[in-house]
Specification:
- It holds the Pfam family RNase_Zc3h12a.
- The chain is 43% helix and 12% strand.
- The chain contains 13 helices and eleven strands.
- The strands form four sheets. It has a five-stranded parallel sheet, sandwiched between helices. A two-stranded parallel sheet has the order 2-4. The protein has a two-stranded antiparallel ribbon with strand order 6-7.
- A hairpin with a 4-residue loop joins strand 10 and strand 11.
- Helix 1 crosses helix 2, helix 2 crosses helix 3 and helix 6 crosses helix 7.
Length: 301
């Protein structure tokens, strides 16, 4: 029991010392939810594991200069860990899989598509949460496609099963949405889901703000994982800034003057004048004064 719980929380990124300390305090039979709450109370935060970071770095460098992904480009230039500038990603595995399976089949291939999309951007901290009972042999009323993908992602320390068990023949399932929001909140990351988690928003005002500001919705278009370019609306940040710890401010866009060459505001005009690229913007009166001075100087000469 101790080893299974230790492995479970190690996959979440928590340190072994913190986990052992909590298990000693709460006892070996403590529920996973209680252990997670105690870890959060202690101030322990998940960290990106070295074994996970190193292969991702090697994979990104091996792609060569042909890749246009900003994550791989910055990694080659700075040779630094991408976790310095890219937010951790926490994926709602059930939501993504059912969305890819058209709400009829639990499609594990959809989870793989989402993971690959974030990998190509350079994200090194990617966690997918799926209920443990999805590991069992699928039933007719809950079909699963490409179930072997779950095992492969688990070996890569990307997929985490939320605990479940059977009591007197009935399945007792822990609330996987709470794991998703907690880990994303503690790592200051983003949640990938089309669920709004309204029940969890009402539990905690900090979670409410976090879910509103860090929820990344998506669509599947012909087996292509596609998040929106404007995750928080047309007036919000771009997708690149949304996924970045250090957003880049957009370049100012100058609106052309509606009066064009007939404008009489000169240098006081707040709009852009393409006909005056390298010239000081003078008013008509100032231009006349300047021309008069030039004519007077010529007459004197």
């Amino acid at each position: 029991v101790h080893k299974s719980k230790l492995d479970f929380f190690c996959k979440l990124g928590y340190g072994k010392q913190d986990i052992c300390k909590v298990l000693e305090n709460l006892g070996q039979e403590a529920l996973e939810d209680d252990v997670l709450k105690e870890l959060i109370r202690m101030g322990s935060k998940p960290q990106v594991m070295e074994s996970q970071t190193q292969p991702s770095l090697l994979k990104l460098v091996a792609r060569g200069s042909c890749s246009t992904a900003p994550g791989s480009k910055w990694l080659r230039e700075d040779e630094s860990d991408s976790s310095d500038y890219l937010r951790p990603v926490v994926i709602d595995g059930s939501n993504v899989a059912m969305s890819h399976g058209n709400k009829e089949v639990f499609s594990c291939w959809g989870i793989q598509l989402a993971v690959d999309w974030f990998r190509e951007r350079g994200h090194t901290y990617i966690k997918v949460f799926v209920p443990l009972w999805r590991k069992e042999t699928p039933r007719q009323d809950s079909p699963i496609a490409d179930q072997h993908i779950l095992e492969e992602l688990e070996k890569q320390s990307i997929l985490v099963y939320t605990p479940s068990r059977k009591v007197k023949g009935k399945r007792v399932v822990c609330y996987d949405d709470r794991y998703i929001v907690k880990v994303a909140y503690e790592t200051d990351g983003v949640i990938v889901s089309n669920d709004h988690y309204r029940d969890l928003q009402s539990e905690n005002p900090e979670w409410k703000w976090f879910i509103e500001q860090r929820l990344l919705m998506y669509s599947f278009v012909s087996n292509r994982f596609m998040p929106p370019d404007d995750p928080l609306g047309r007036h919000g940040p771009t997708l690149s800034n949304f996924l970045s710890k250090k957003p880049v401010p957009p370049e100012p866009k100058w609106q052309p003057c509606p009066y064009g060459k007939k404008c009489t505001y000169g240098n006081k005009c707040k709009f852009y004048h393409p006909e005056r690229p390298q010239q000081a913007q003078l008013s008509v009166a100032d231009e006349l004064r300047g021309n008069t001075k030039v004519l007077l100087s010529l007459v004197k000469e």
